[in-house]
Amino acid sequence: MAYKVEFEAPALDGFANLRTQVKWQNPDDEVLKVSIENSLFWVTVYDTDKLVGTGRVIGDGAMYFYIQDIIVAPSYQKQGIGRLVMTHIENYFTNTCSNGATVGLLSAHGKESFYTHYGYVKRDGDSLGFGMCKFI
Fold first, then answer.
1. Could you give the 3-state DSSP secondary structure of residue 103?
2. Are 82 and 88 in contact (CB under 8 A)?
3. Is residue 11 in a domain?
């Protein structure tokens, strides 16, 4: 099936709905709106006009980049949409990042192997530490 790919932020309601479909909690609309607007790069995938997949890059745009919100609607998973999103994100990095830039991400548990196809490695705790996060 051919999907429509765009490189712009999704509508707030479509993004919130997609997050809800994968059982992620949404902050209030104003927080979500600011987060959407402050992203560096977006990939959105549509089946006609229905948002079915997304991914974005956040960060400082120079040294540090972070992959966020790689989401595919459950009824569209296993159809290559995640790979499509990641391919466009990797192209963005190729065209944007300077030598020495760092790209990070937090993988959902059990999805790590998806990202290893793109050269990402699990932090084993030896040379780089495990990494940490805090949810507020």
1. strand
2. no
3. yes
**Pairing between strand 41-47 and 4-6?**
antiparallel
Task: Please determine, for residue 136, whether its predicted confidence score (pLDDT) is greater than 90.
Answer: no
Residue 35, judged by CB atoms within 10 A of its CB (0-12, 13-18, 19+), counts as middle
**Does any domain span residue 102?**
yes
Contact in structure between 103 and 68 (CB atoms under 8 Å):
no
Q: How many domains does the chain have?
A: 1
> By C-alpha distance, which of 10, 78, 89, 2 is closest to 47?
2
pLDDT at 133 over 80: no
Q: Is 44 within the bounds of a domain? A: yes
Note the pTM of the prediction, 2 decimals. Answer: 0.92
- Give 68's strand partners: 56
- List the domain range (segments joined by +) for residue 80: 4-107
Instruction: Report the alpha-carbon distance of residue 79 to residue 52 in Å, rounded.
Output: 11
- Residue 34 CA to residue 38 CA, distance in Å, equals 6
Whichever domain contains 53, its CATH number is: 3.40.630.30
Q: Determine, yes or no, domain membership for 72.
A: yes
